Amino acid sequence: MLQIAFAPCYVQELPPKHRFPMAKYELLPQQLLREGIVEQKHFFEPQAINHKHFLAVHDAEYFYDFLNLKFTQKQIRKSGFPLSRSLVNRELLIAAGTLQASLHALKQGVGMNIAGGTHHAYADSAEGFCMLNDQAIAAQYLLNHQLAQQILIIDLDVHQGNGTAKIFENEKRVFTFSMHGEKNYPFKKEKSDLDIALPNDTGDDAYLQILKEKLPQLLDQVQPDFVFYLSGVDVLATDKLGKLSLSQAGCKMRDQMVLEQLKARNLPVEISMGGGYSPAIKHIVNAHANTFKLVQAIYY
C-alpha cells in the first residue's frame, strides 16, 4: 500500500505574502482524497527522528542555531521565511517524513512526501525556503545503515539542487542529477555530478526528448540501488518563477517517464514534491496530483 508522509502545515502563522505557496500542502491531500486517488489510510504523520540523523548531513552549530531560534537576521532573510518554533518543528517533520517514506520505498517500491524537496539547504546554511535538506538526510541515513550502496538523486525541479550537489560533492555513493533552468535561481550554481541547464521557454518536446535520451543512459551508468526523485512542478509554463514552458500534460509525461523507468528496473524510489509557484493554485495542485495518480497507476 502506498505510504505518503504528511506533516501538518502552519500557513495561518505566516505573513500573507508567504501563505500562498504554502497552501498547496494543505490543498493537495484534500484533492487526492476528493478525487479518490488515495484514502486516508495512505497518509502517515512523520515521527520525530534522532538529531544524529540531521547531524550526519548538517553542521552542528548551524543545526542547533536553527533548532534554538538563533538565526541572525541575515540567515533569516536568506532562508526566505520568518523564523518560528512552528517552522522549526515543520522542517524537522518534513525531513523525518522523507526518511520514513524512504524506508517504505525499500519495502514497497515507492514512498512519497506531500512536502520536501528542500534542495537549496546546504550543510551549514539555509537558502530559498529550505532549512534542512530532506533528501540528503534520508540518503545519508540509507548509506549509514547499509540500506543502499549507490544512490541516484533525480532533481527535476526548475531550480538547480545546489545544496544537495554541494553536500554530496565528495560522496561517490551519491550521484546528483539536476535538470533545471539555466538562467534561473540559484544564480551561483554548484556542480552536480550531472547538470543539464535548459534555456528559457524550453517546452514539452525539447524537455521530454532530453529526458528520454539521458535518463536510461544515466541509470545504466550509475547502477543505483535506490533513487530519490524531486518532482517540482515549477517547470510549468504558468509558473511565475519557472521560466520554462511545460504544459500540464508535459509535466505529467515527465513523471511517467521517470517512474516507468524506475519500476521497470525494480528500483525503489522516494518522491518529494519540490516547488510550484503558478499564480492559480489549481495549476500547482493538479500537477502535483498527477504525480500521485501515476504512482498509483504504475505501482499499484
From TrEMBL:
**Domain of life here?**
Bacteria
Alphabetically list the UniProt keywords.
Answer: Hydrolase
Ranges for the Histone deacetylase domain? 18-289
Q: Tell me the Gene3D superfamilies matching this sequence.
A: Histone deacetylase domain (3.40.800.20)
Look up keyword Amino-acid biosynthesis and say if it applies.
no
Q: Does the keyword Zinc-finger apply?
A: no
Entry coiled-coil feature ranges: none
Listed Pfam families: Hist_deacetyl (PF00850)
Q: Which InterPro entries match?
A: HDAC_classIV, HDACs, His_deacetylse_dom, His_deacetylse_dom_sf, Ureohydrolase_dom_sf
- What family is reported? Belongs to the histone deacetylase family.
Q: What is this protein's name? A: Histone deacetylase
Origin species, per record, is Mesonia sediminis
